[in-house]
Design a protein that fits this description.
single chain; mainly alpha; 23 helices; five-stranded mixed β-sheet
Length: 545
């Protein structure tokens, strides 16, 4: 047993020669080509007419944050660090800001396969593995899942890119004195801390993944990555506790939660294609192990290194899928598919890379023969997914979900009503308000137009200052039900009173109407009016992340 263990693990704990050699074998031309493909993919998806007019409140609010108030985390919560809004805060035009943020999200998300490739270290061409994995993602995922994981306001692309950067930095630490390894460790630690601040759920994959690799493929790199991940999560948790807010991280184990999650996932992927990839993946691992055993010499491990890493990642993904559907926050959000996006990405890329590695088997001529058709397939899948495209700049892209029947379809109309009547406060439904605020800021170039709905508590000082300086302030409410208008007014002010009077006695409806799309609105004066019953704020309204 001891002899088996000794052969199973890597022979050199001080430095992982496989990682160093793998990185050295990949030419900078391949890396530059992959980076260019990521940027191209981000550009195509950003200005695709299928995606550029599908941005809801969760997406546009990030540009509003960059314009109005930068906070450590996403407004109204103590997680999901506002890193991209900070990066783009210097862009004053909110429309340009939104487009740049979306392009950065999509470009970073296009790099999803790199995490798996760097982890597995296949002998096959970097470019070939990347193209195959990207093609698999865009083929298997349905439109809405691609929108969520590439262009929507999501943390996965950025956090996984940061973790990939840390893995690359720690791939080769020996033979360069002390300064280079120390710099790599420090910079890698910073990247992992940022990754955990952006997406704390990454720890659910990273901890078991690197922990298993320490057991079965020990190296300084894996030890460092586990320590960095745990440290980064602790920093993230400390900052979350410092920000405060209600936590929904209780675990409620119930088989029904797993069933709900499974149904959500299968509604957003091509189950047949994913099942076929899984079958080929298992077959690929078996073939890879048989080849490894046939070519194995005395000092080689019993199990093929790529098989060890593949199994470790598979187990980490399984742990995530068993745990996350039972988290209270996910249950409250009805197991939305975005909470499983990270695992869907990792599993699909894992399957694709192992299949490519099995086909190529280290043979350069086979890789060269496969590369052109695989690259062509990736290009065709990308343009099939994104066509038609409105290359920038184009007025065909509103970067708001303007499709008929959508909550935000009247955003421009609401904005123009507010601007025509010099209204600076828009309240009501979350999905209507933030797109309307975005449009009002875009059309006017002013930043003093505020939303009064879920997540508006971060702007409460500015809202109260606005009301204190304007005794007869008018509000635009996007809801037909006056009780809903009162509900969000109470929520945004943090009180049921206005200048010492109950809100129900301090408002007067001065105008009502409907938009061309048939959506209702009313204009309210904050002054004495007919008494109305108080509205109690109902917990759980609006959107949660």
């Amino acid at each position: 047993m001891r002899q088996f263990w000794a052969h199973l693990i890597s022979p050199n704990l001080a430095e992982d020669p496989g990682g160093a050699q793998w990185l050295a074998d990949k030419s900078y031309q391949h890396w530059l080509t992959v980076i260019a493909l990521c940027l191209l993919t981000g550009t195509v998806l950003t200005w695709s007419l299928r995606f550029c007019n599908a941005h809801d409140a969760d997406s546009v609010i990030l540009s509003i944050m960059a314009q109005q108030k930068l906070t450590l985390f996403y407004w109204g919560q103590n997680r999901y660090m506002n890193l991209l809004p900070v990066v783009t805060a210097w862009i004053d035009d909110i429309s340009t800001n939104q487009q740049v943020q979306v392009w950065l999200r999509a470009s970073l998300a296009a790099a999803y396969p790199l995490f798996v490739i760097v982890l597995l270290r296949p002998k096959a061409s970097l470019l070939l593995c990347f193209a195959a994995a990207l093609a698999a993602l865009l083929t298997i995922f349905q439109f809405d899942l691609i929108r969520i994981l590439w262009t929507d306001g999501q943390p996965y692309g950025l956090s996984l890119a940061l973790m990939t950067g840390a893995m690359l930095l720690t791939s080769r630490l020996g033979g360069r004195g002390i300064a280079w390894p120390l710099a790599c460790v420090v910079l890698g630690s910073v990247l992992v801390v940022l990754a955990m601040l952006v997406n704390a759920s990454l720890i659910i994959v990273a901890a078991p993944l690197f922990g298993l690799l320490i057991l079965f493929a020990p190296s300084i790199q894996n030890v460092l990555l586990l320590a960095m991940s745990l440290g980064g999560y602790m920093v993230s948790k400390k900052l979350s506790n410092w920000i405060g807010g209600r936590e929904y991280d209780n675990i409620i184990f119930d088989p029904a939660n797993l069933s709900t999650a499974w149904n959500r996932i299968m509604a957003e992927v091509d189950g047949t294609a994913l099942g076929l990839l899984a079958f080929l993946f298992v077959g690929g691992l078996i073939v890879t192990q048989m080849r490894h055993r046939a070519a194995r010499s005395g000092g080689d491990p019993v199990v093929a290194p790529i098989a060890v890493r593949s199994i470790a990642l598979s187990v980490a993904c399984l742990i995530y899928m068993m745990l996350v559907p039972n988290i209270e926050w996910v249950i409250l959000n009805i197991s939305h598919v975005r909470y499983f996006g990270l695992i869907l990405v990792l599993v699909t890329c894992l399957f694709a890379v192992v299949i490519v590695e099995t086909l190529v088997d280290g043979e350069r001529r086979i890789g060269m023969a496969l590369a052109p058709p695989v690259l062509l397939m990736a290009a065709l899948v990308l343009f099939r997914t994104s066509w038609p495209i409105a290359f920038p700049p184009s007025d065909q892209c509103s970067f708001i979900a303007t499709e008929p029947g959508g909550a935000a379809q009247s955003s421009e109309y609401y904005a123009r009503v507010a601007l025509d009547r010099d209204i600076h406060l828009i309240l009501g439904d979350y999905w209507k308000v933030w797109p309307a605020v975005f449009e009002a800021i875009r059309l006017s170039g002013r930043e003093d137009i505020y939303g009064m709905t879920l997540r508006a508590e971060e702007m409460r000082p500015q809202i109260l200052s606005r009301l204190d300086g304007n005794a007869d302030e008018r509000l635009l409410c996007t809801d037909r039900d006056m009780q809903v208008c009162l509900q969000w007014l109470t929520f945004s002010l943090g009180s049921g009173e206005y200048h010492g009077k109950p809100l129900s006695e301090a408002i007067e409806v001065v105008e009502e109407g409907t938009t061309p799309a048939g959506q209702y609105y009313r204009i309210i004066d904050l002054k004495e009016g007919e008494p109305m019953p108080d509205a109690a704020l109902s917990e759980g309204s609006g959107q949660s992340r």
